[in-house]
Specification:
about 40% helix, elongated, alpha+beta, 4 strands
Length: about 220
């Protein structure tokens, strides 16, 4: 005799649930997108310039105040500040290279803007891998052109190829995959919704590769 507790309890079963998934957002390159990307990179470059100025002012003040009391410590602080300055100068160089590349993007090609969180309905019998990783959005000047179903492995390979191609610009000799070789794309771009409508306030686009977070501003789509 079977135990009644082993039998399925229909009252405890749900027909479906809704889950969030990460969806890649590709943008078709237009003149407007090129200008927008260049503007975002310039904003990030300006932010780095501001940090460099602050570092120089702080370094001068600290070294001056410390030198009389402890010259050795003053020199150590100066060296640390110089290291920080070089890091930001290198970042500025990479951002400038990416800005130049953005200005020369080929019209009509696809540019990976990043990822957004979308909703997926999951029912018994569904392939979870396809539901969670098999959808991409394609937009043109903020208007959705295509919601396409993709093979997850193929989509990952295409995104990796894009990141490697974009990430090595302006950084010759940097190994692929190194943090310094990843594209420093500004964060905080708003999610695009079907028809070009704007999302609820506070929604943000999480970019696939964030680069050096402290030095980039957070522009919004115009």
């Amino acid at each position: 005799m079977s135990d009644a507790s082993d039998e399925p309890n229909e009252k405890n079963q749900l027909p479906a649930i809704t889950m969030t998934r990460t969806t890649r957002l590709w943008a078709i390159v237009t003149e407007r997108l090129r200008e927008q990307l260049a503007g975002e990179y310039q904003q990030a470059i300006d932010g780095v310039d501001d940090e460099l100025k602050q570092l120089e002012d702080t370094s001068t003040r600290l070294v001056t105040n410390l030198f009389r009391a402890n010259p050795q410590q003053a020199m150590a602080v100066r060296q640390q500040m110089e290291v920080e300055k070089r890091r930001r100068e290198q970042l500025k160089g990479r951002l400038s290279a990416h800005k130049k590349q953005a200005e020369g993007l080929e019209l009509g090609t696809e540019y990976l803007r990043g990822t957004i969180e979308t909703l997926a309905e999951v029912k018994p019998g569904d392939n979870l891998s396809e539901l969670m990783c098999g959808v991409e959005l394609v937009v043109k000047d903020n208007v959705v052109q295509e919601i396409r179903k993709v093979d997850p492995d193929t989509a990952d390979a295409a995104a990796d190829e894009f990141e490697q191609r974009m990430g090595t610009v302006g950084t010759p000799g940097t190994p692929a995959g190194d943090a310094a070789a990843q594209p420093e794309r500004p964060r905080g771009v708003q999610i695009i919704t079907p028809g070009g409508a704007q999302p609820a306030q506070g929604s943000q686009l999480r970019l696939a590769s964030e680069g050096e977070q402290s030095s980039e501003k957070a522009p919004t789509d115009k």
